[in-house]
Design goal:
Layout (H helix, E strand, L loop, with lengths): L7 H6 L5 H8 L7 H8 L1 E6 L6 E7 L9 E6 L4 H22 L3 E5 L7 H15 L2 H9 L5 H8 L3 H7 L5
Parallel strand pairs: 1-3
Antiparallel strand pairs: 2-3, 2-4
The chain binds zinc ion (ZN).
Length: about 170
């Protein structure tokens, strides 16, 4: 009979968490730290000053400067923080959902209607909203007394229209 000398708890931590597990870990506090989520999934996030006109963000294969996944995300430095956060979440969603289509290299998002199909862009927007505005966290903030849309948007660091869409309210 053979027995392992390995400490099972030590072995366990070597199993990398899934993207869903990483996201869930950061969804317990507002604002959801989407840059840390990306970094922990292995994607480096850059602020870029020289993106082409109309491009809010991009994701590209970046074996040298990217994270452990070999990818980087870039966002337009000049855009408001809430917009940059949504862009990071949107590009991250493309990585999780459509990674096989990003393998050719650079993928640029022009107003979130880049080279992928409109269905894939809708999926990425939906997942970005899921990441940044989990219903459980919204509910917790309301329990804490945050009862205005403006207050909730500020705590979540999302735009008011994004929050309204999330809550199925007229924008
Ligand atoms: Zn996109």
């Amino acid at each position: 009979m053979t027995a392992t000398l390995e400490n099972p708890s030590r072995t366990k931590v070597l199993v990398p968490p899934t993207p869903g597990e990483v996201i869930a870990k950061y969804q317990v506090a507002a604002p959801v730290d989407v840059v840390s989520i990306a970094q922990e999934i292995g994607i480096r996030v850059w602020e870029m000053r020289r993106l082409p006109e109309g491009v809010s963000g991009q994701i590209w294969r970046d074996p040298i400067n990217g994270g452990t996944s070999g990818f980087s995300i870039g966002v337009r430095a000049a855009e408001p923080l809430v917009r940059k956060r949504f862009t990071v979440a949107h590009e991250l969603a493309h990585y999780i959902l459509h990674r096989n289509k990003l393998d050719s290299g650079l993928f640029e998002d022009v107003m979130y209607r880049g080279g992928l199909s409109s269905r894939e862009e809708t999926q990425a927007n939906q997942m970005a909203a899921d990441i940044l505005m989990p219903f459980k966290l919204i509910s917790n903030l309301m329990d804490e007394g945050e009862n205005t849309l403006e207050g909730l948007a500020q705590r979540l660091q999302v735009s008011l229209p994004a929050l309204k869409i999330r809550l199925q309210l007229p924008v």
